[in-house]
Amino acid sequence: MSDIVAELRETLLGWKAYFGIAEVMSPLREIDKWVRRKLRCYIWKQWGRAGYRELRKRGVSVREAWNTSKSAHGPWRLSKTPALALALPVRYFSSIGLPALAAK
User: Fold this and answer.
1) Is 94:31 a contact under the CB 8 Å cutoff?
2) Is the model's pLDDT at 76 over the cut of 90?
3) Rounded Cα–Cα distance for residues 40 and 74 (Å)
4) Helix, strand, or coil here: 28?
5) I want to staple 58 with a disulfide (CB 3.0 to 4.6 A). Which of 47, 82, 83, 87 is the partner?
6) What pLDDT does 1 receive?
7) Are the C-beta atoms of 29 and 102 separated by less than 8 Å?
8) DSSP state of 104
């Protein structure tokens, strides 16, 4: 994950330098959301069968973790669930070095 974030960091910081002077921040916020969702999808795939245990370890309720881990939906759709948003919040991605394009 650190290699992926390091590669993304270069590109995102370049975009931030180029597009950072924009007055309309909503497209940059949408890109931020999409990148985090894509990373959640990637992490969910990495967890594989241990997804339930990983969600529980990160504070997700038993019911929510069970429903998410046993869902027939694919990783991309599950990456937008409340369980994964709770397990992998925005502060998790900022703690591993992922920059945000839009200033909060």
Assistant:
1) no
2) yes
3) 12
4) helix
5) 87
6) 87
7) yes
8) -
Q: In the chain, where are the structural domains located?
A: 2-95
Query: What's the rounded Cα separation, in Å, for the pair 81 and 60?
Result: 11
Flag whether pLDDT at 63 surpasses 90: yes
DSSP 43-100: HHHHHGGGHHHHHHHTT--HHHHHHHHT--S-HHHHTTSHHHHHHS-HHHHHHTTPPP
State how far the Cα of 78 lies from the Cα of 20, in Å rounded to an integer.
31
What is the spatial distance between Cα 31 and Cα 101, in angstroms, rounded to a whole number?
Answer: 8
Query: Structure tokens of 59?
Result: 């504070």
Mean pLDDT of 42-61: 96
